[in-house]
Each structure stands twice: as C-alpha cells, then as structure tokens.
C-alpha cells in the first residue's frame, strides 16, 4: 500500500510508541487521525509535528475502556476524512497485579482496553473499509508468549490480542489484512529504575533495549506486505528465543 493520501488512525498516539507510529505514517504522506484519551497535550504535539513536516493530521479523543466509544471513534475519523485505510491499535495498558491482588475490575480493564477496544475499532474499521480494503495492525506484547508472574491478566489479554489478530484476519479476508507486532522491552514504563533497565539489557540476546523505530519499521513493513495476514511479528532483541 502506498501511504500517500491514505487515511490512518493510530490509537494512543499522544505519546511514546503510538506517537512514533503516527509521525512515521504522517511523514509518508498518510492523513493521520491522532487518537488520545488523557494525553491531550501529547496529541496536540503529534498533530503539530505532522503538520510542521507538511502532512495532514487531526486529533480525536475517546476513552477506549468504553466499547461503544471505540467503534464511534472510527466512524468519527472516517466521517471527518471521508475514508479509512489503515488502523493501528496501539493504545493499551500494562498494570502490575501479582496473582493474589488481581481484582475483577483490574482483569476487566485489561481486557476492555487491550482486547475489546481493538475488536470494536476493527469491527467499525471493517465496515468503513469495505471492499475498498485496508490494513489493521495491532500492537501486542512479548507478554503474549512469555509468563510474567506479576502480569498474568496483562499477558492473557495480549495473548487474546494475538488470537484476535488471527481471527479477524480470517474473517475480514480478502479485502482487509490484519497483523500484529509484539514488542519486547522498548520504552520502559514510567518510573522503572535503572537496575530494571540494566537487567533487561543484560538478559536480551541483542544486548540493548528496542528503539521506537524498531517497532515503527515493522508496522510499516506489515502495512506494505500485501501477502501477510494473521501474523504476529515479535520484535524483542531475541528475548523470546532464550528458552
Ligand atoms: N513500550 C514498550 O516497550 C512496549 C512493549 C510491549 C508492548 N507495548 C505495547 O505497545 C503499545 C504502546 O505502548 P506505549 O508504552 O507507548 O504506551 P503507554 O506509554 O503505556 O501509553 C498507553 C497508551 O494507551 C492509551 N490508553 C490507555 N488507556 C486508554 C483508554 N482508557 N482510552 C484510550 N486510550 C488509552 C494512552 O492514551 P492517553 O495517554 O492519551 O490516555 C497511551 O497512548 C501498548 O499496546 C503496549 O502494550 C509497548
């Protein structure tokens, strides 16, 4: 897919990885819908940077813990731009909850944002893409494939996102492709101490954390790869091959 003039919605693009993906799509000529929830200032920055580089972008707010808001977001974007070609589901949460402390509310929130919202944005995107076609890229997590003791609901939700990717790829073919990227340690959660970062570097075969561009390049590859659907590409510096 040539991105010039295409309409791309990136959820969670007011900060960090989502912002990097939105900026890259804008730099390649896509008209970018910059979604945010709490990061209004960050979304404004994303929009301003795309426009300053000569691109087109608009901000859209939605709380994706609300499934109806997730679908409605996509329809607002498609109404505003007149089309939708690319959806990147990057918004997500990663809350630490050791097993004894997991509450039903924490479980439900992980699934609402990490799985249910990508389903309903994709459902609405498929309705708007129709036979014209399009591409959906989900940002999963290495946690889908590993067992992290403090993050069981998170890991299960991301494994479900990988399953969602396969299921939607089958259901939405042949016009719409659906794929995913599963990052390893790229941008660490706010507040993680130096020792945690050093441990991750030391235990990663390629001996470095990932850079946002490592994820961006894989998203662009999946958007461009017309014969890939249903796949999840792990981008983790080799952490997943240690076992
Ligand atoms: N960073 C990494 O190294 C890494 C590793 C593996 C997987 N991932 C995955 O990559 C994606 C982006 O990661 P990140 O680290 O850049 O994200 P992040 O800094 O943790 O930020 C979370 C993003 O999700 C959005 N979000 C959270 N709750 C929301 C809600 N209720 N409604 C709407 N949006 C909501 C946030 O939007 P607002 O700030 O506007 O509220 C923000 O853009 C996530 O899916 C994450 O699981 C990241």
Count of the domains? 1
Averaging pLDDT over every residue, what do you get?
A: 97
Major sheet attributes: 7 strands, parallel
Q: What strand order characterises the main sheet? A: 3-2-1-4-5-6-7
Q: What is the chain-wise order of helices and strands?
A: EHEHEHEHEHEHHE
As for the CATH topology, it is Rossmann fold
Q: How many separate helices?
A: 7
Question: What is the structural class?
Answer: alpha/beta
Q: State the CATH architecture.
A: 3-Layer(aba) Sandwich
Can you tell me about this structure?
With 243 residues, this protein is an alpha/beta fold. It has one domain: NAD(P)-binding Rossmann-like Domain (Rossmann fold). 45% of the residues lie in helices and 16% in strands. It is built from seven helices and seven strands, in the order E-H-E-H-E-H-E-H-E-H-E-H-H-E. The chain has helices spanning 16-27, 40-52, 67-81, 104-129, 152-172, 194-202, 212-224, and strands at 7-10, 31-36, 56-61, 86-89, 134-139, 176-183, 232-235. The protein has a seven-stranded parallel sheet, with helices on both faces. Helix 5 links the parallel strand 5 (134-139) and strand 6 (176-183). The mean pLDDT is 97. The structure holds NADP nicotinamide-adenine-dinucleotide phosphate. NADP nicotinamide-adenine-dinucleotide phosphate (NAP) binds next to helix 1.
What tags apply to this protein structure?
7 strands, single chain, 7 helices, 243 residues, binds NADP nicotinamide-adenine-dinucleotide phosphate, alpha/beta, Rossmann fold, 45% helix
Topology, element by element:
Layout: E1 7-10, H1 16-27, E2 31-36, H2 40-52, E3 56-61, H3 67-81, E4 86-89, H4 104-129, E5 134-139, H5 152-172, E6 176-183, H6 194-202, H7 212-224, E7 232-235
Helix pairs in contact: 1-2, 1-7, 3-4, 4-5
Residues 12, 14-18, 36-39, 63-65, 90-94, 113, 139, 141, 183, 185-187 line the site of NADP nicotinamide-adenine-dinucleotide phosphate (NAP).
């Amino acid at each position: 897919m040539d991105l010039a003039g295409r309409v791309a919605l990136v959820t969670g693009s007011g900060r960090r990885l989502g912002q990097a993906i939105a900026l890259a799509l804008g730099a390649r000529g896509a008209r970018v819908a910059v979604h945010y929830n709490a990061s209004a200032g960050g979304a404004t920055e994303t929009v301003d940077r795309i426009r300053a580089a000569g691109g087109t972008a608009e901000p859209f707010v939605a709380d994706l813990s609300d499934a109806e808001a997730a679908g409605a977001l996509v329809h607002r974007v498609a109404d505003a731009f007149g089309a939708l070609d690319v959806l990147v589901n990057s918004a997500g949460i990663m809350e630490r909850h050791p097993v004894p402390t997991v509450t039903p509310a924490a479980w439900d929130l992980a699934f609402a944002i990490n799985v249910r919202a990508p389903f309903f944005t994709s459902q609405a995107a498929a309705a708007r893409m129709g036979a014209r076609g399009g591409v959906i890229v989900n940002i999963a997590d290495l946690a889908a494939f590993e067992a992290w003791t403090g993050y069981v609901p998170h890991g299960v939700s991301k494994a479900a996102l990988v399953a969602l990717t396969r299921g939607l790829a089958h259901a939405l073919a042949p016009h719409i492709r659906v794929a995913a990227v599963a990052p390893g340690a790229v941008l660490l959660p706010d507040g993680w101490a130096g020792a945690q970062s050093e441990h991750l570097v030391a235990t990663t075969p390629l001996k470095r954390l990932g850079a946002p561009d490592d994820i961006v390049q894989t998203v662009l590859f999946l958007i461009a790869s017309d014969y890939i659907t249903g796949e999840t590409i792990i981008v983790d510096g080799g952490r997943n091959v240690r076992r």
